[in-house]
Amino acid sequence: MTTIQVKDEWKAGAKLTADQYRDWYRRSVEDPEGFWAEHGKRVDWINPYTKVKNTSFAPGNVDIRWFEDGTLNVSANCLDRHLATRGDQTAILWEGDDPADSRAISYRELHGEVCRMANVLLANGVKKGDRVTIYMPMIPEAAVAMLASARIGAVHSVVFGGFSPDALAGRLEGAQSSVLITADEGLRGGRKVPLKKNADRACEIAAQAGQAVSTMLVVRRTGGDVAWQDGRDVWWHEAREEVSADCSPAEMGAEDPLFILYTSGSTGKPKGVLHTSGGYLVYASMTHEYVFDYRDGEIYWCTADVGWVTGHSYIVYGPLANGATTLMFEGVPNYPDPSRFWQVVDKHKVNIFYTAPTAIRALMGAGDDKVTSTSRASLRVLGSVGEPINPEAWTWYYRVVGEERCPVVDTWWQTETGGILITPLPGAIDLKPGSATLPFFGVQPQLVDNEGEVIEGEGAGNLCITDSWPGQMRTVYGDHERFEQTYFSTYRDKYFTGDGARRDADGYWWITGRVDDVLNVSGHRMGTAEVESALVSHPKVSEAAVVGYPHDLKGQGIYCYVTLMEGESETEELRKELVAHVRNEIGPIASPDKIQFAPGLPKTRSGKIMRRILRKIAEDDFGALGDTSTLADPGVVEDLVEHRQNRK
Ligand code: WT7
Fold first, then answer.
1. How far apart are CA 14 and CA 20, in angstroms?
2. Which residues are reported to carry the modification N6-acetyllysine (predicted)?
3. 404 located within any domain
4. Whose CA is nearest to atom 19 of ligand 1?
5. Which of 200, 225, 250 delimits the end of a domain?
6. For the segment 132-171, what is each residue's pLDDT rounded down to a tens digit?
7. Are 165 and 205 in contact, with CB atoms under 8 Å apart?
8. Closest CA to 360 of 388, 380, 379, 336
């Protein structure tokens, strides 16, 4: 396997050398208290901490606290502390869906807007600890809403703007949130997204389940027509005129919640991942600085949506805590044409660019000329996140986009981890295409086999982390039991990531993907159980089983086996109806790629669906079905193979 050694140009001015990385890493695991006592100082504390680490992964007693007696305000760290030194510097550089639309918002302006929105929230009765749900397009007001919530000590729950009314309603209920911030409509790839309409519907559904929304703050984006509920709905552009542009930040404990972010697991409904204030900010800002080798004055662009954790940590909190200029893009990679990313890079002289493998693969398919017709001379560091990046895509990104001038950092992490855990550091760590390379400071990965035995040296297995880091999630909102069960019960005293990984002879990490029933479709995480429950909520469906299969562009595609109710017929129309139904229930990202009507599903005698077999058939690899002798009715497999939807 090729190794790309750190180039001299990357070393010049880099934050750390290879030796420093090794020294810092050693100290971070041998003396975590000392290491983090020092690096915790990178954020401004109102009352400094005296305690650093107080964490336990012990069964029945999982408890994670960092800097627990310190107090701070996250929004003040992202705004107020920069005013004296960089008040006029651009904080958010916004690029609209339409290439003619852009806006630069300075730290001073952002501070004013955040204070105003904080005051509007206060005026509407929002208090410390209340949950504020944010359902927004990619406009600066999304970041304003997050920071405003943080400013007054409320807990935000951002819901991706592509989710359906049902999905939004479930999250309003889960977070018991009575305040919703949204926009009239979003704009993506020239198409309008009816956010307010979806939000109205979500409020109806949530109200039926007993969760009333009393305030809906609406940002005007497109000016499109929207329904209005007097007494509940408030226009942001009107409310902001009524309040002051000053709002003193609330003093928060390090372990006070900052946000909840719902994410899919292998079973049940999405979980509310809870992150707290101090450790999260220390970790997000430190990783942002070192992983991207961020230098003062640079333009940094992460193409994620703020609806995902990448947007939280690496569009909003990390970059703003570091006083960076963070670019926020409303649009999509291929609108108006597949050169858009690189045109934006040239337009704003972007230095650091962070995107997902699915976008890289799609743009690779559009042809090199779409890239080479642009300059990209400003680029210095390239990043990848969200799913395993195949070596071909990695190499194309490195060669064609970065012209071999820019190191590529493949960053592995999760919603639960708050920030990047395994990654190269530019200028310090040699690269291997397809490998996330080495752990960040304080992170101790470990491989275990299915019995929990530790695998030393070279090998493959289940990826665990043996000790806490400051950005780690603290609990599942409202369900600590589920937190322990999901992450700490599979392997004793370890955090289990749900991913499989391989460690090579050089100690480099290669993440191979989920080993549980979680799908990763174009970098979007989804539980097979969620898609199944959407399918069976259709009146004609009696049973469904969903698996992933390898997909050239999306990484994984969604393959559904559907058993119909007695007397229903297997038609093309019904197939389309089921796809539309799942989109309606969850959102377009969950659109099934293949639906196979299955008169029966392969089950064990105790009634458990044998997913291993379903995965093989979906992959068109049915020659290797393995042992089918435990099946209650081995005959069903023949029918499934015969009617498989994925013939190569
Ligand atoms: C899952 C987490 C973390 C931000 C975006 C996704 C997969 C993420 C990589 C990578 C291989 C990756 C894992 C992980 N994943 N980054 N660089 N290489 N796999 O966050 O939605 O919580 O998904 O994404 O499977 O468990 P998420």
1. 11
2. 608
3. no
4. 387
5. 250
6. 999 999 999 999 999 999 999 999 999 999 999 999 999 9
7. yes
8. 388
Name the closest-CA residue to atom 14, ligand 1.
414
CA of 420 from ligand 1 middle (Å) equals 10
Query: Residue 67: inside a domain, yes or no?
Result: no
Among residues 233, 250, 267, the one where a domain terminates is: 250
Q: What is the ipTM of this complex?
A: 0.99
Q: How many domains does the chain have?
A: 2
Domain with residue 115: its CATH number is: 3.40.50.980
Report the nearest-CA residue for atom 5 of ligand 1.
386
Of the candidates 157, 161, 149, 164, the one whose C-alpha atom is nearest the C-alpha of residue 186 is 161
Assigned token pair, 210: 């007993």
Inform me whether the pLDDT recorded for 631 exceeds 90: no
Q: Quick check: 1 pLDDT over 80?
A: no
135: which 2 tokens? 């359902």
Confidence of residue 648 (pLDDT cuts 50, 70, 90): confident
Lining ligand 1 with CB less than 6 A are 263, 308-310, 385-388, 410-415, 436, 497-499, 511, 513-514, 520, 525
Q: Is 417 annotated in some ligand binding site? A: no
What is the model's pLDDT at position 633?
Answer: 85
Domain with 585 in it: what CATH number? 3.30.300.30
320 sits in which H/E element: helix 318-321
**Is residue 588 in some structural domain?**
yes
The angle that helices 528-536 and 572-585 make with each other, rounded to 10 degrees, is 120
Edge to edge, the sheet with strand 445-448 lists 454-455, 445-448, 459-465, 495-503, 509-514
The count of other CB atoms within 10 Å of the CB of residue 611 is 17
Instruction: List, as one string, the DSSP characters of 27-65.
Output: HHHH-HHHHHHHHGGGS--SB--S--EEEE--TT--EEE
- Residue 273's beta-bridge partner residues? 261, 476
Residues 594-610, mean pLDDT to the nearest whole number? 92
Report the alpha-carbon distance of residue 532 to residue 534 in Å, rounded: 5
Q: Are the C-beta atoms of residues 498 and 412 closer than 8 Å to each other? A: no
Q: Which pLDDT tens digit goes with each residue over 215-269?
A: 999 999 999 999 999 999 999 999 999 999 999 999 999 999 999 999 999 888 9
Structural domain including 627 reads 522-643
The protein residue with its alpha carbon nearest to ligand 1, atom 11, reads 388
Cis peptide before 407 (omega within 30 of 0): no
Closest CA to 235 of 248, 216, 251, 253: 216
Instruction: Give the pTM.
Output: 0.97
Q: What angle in degrees, to the nearest 10, is found between the helix axes of 140-151 and 107-123? A: 60
Give a yes or no: residue 27 inside a domain. no
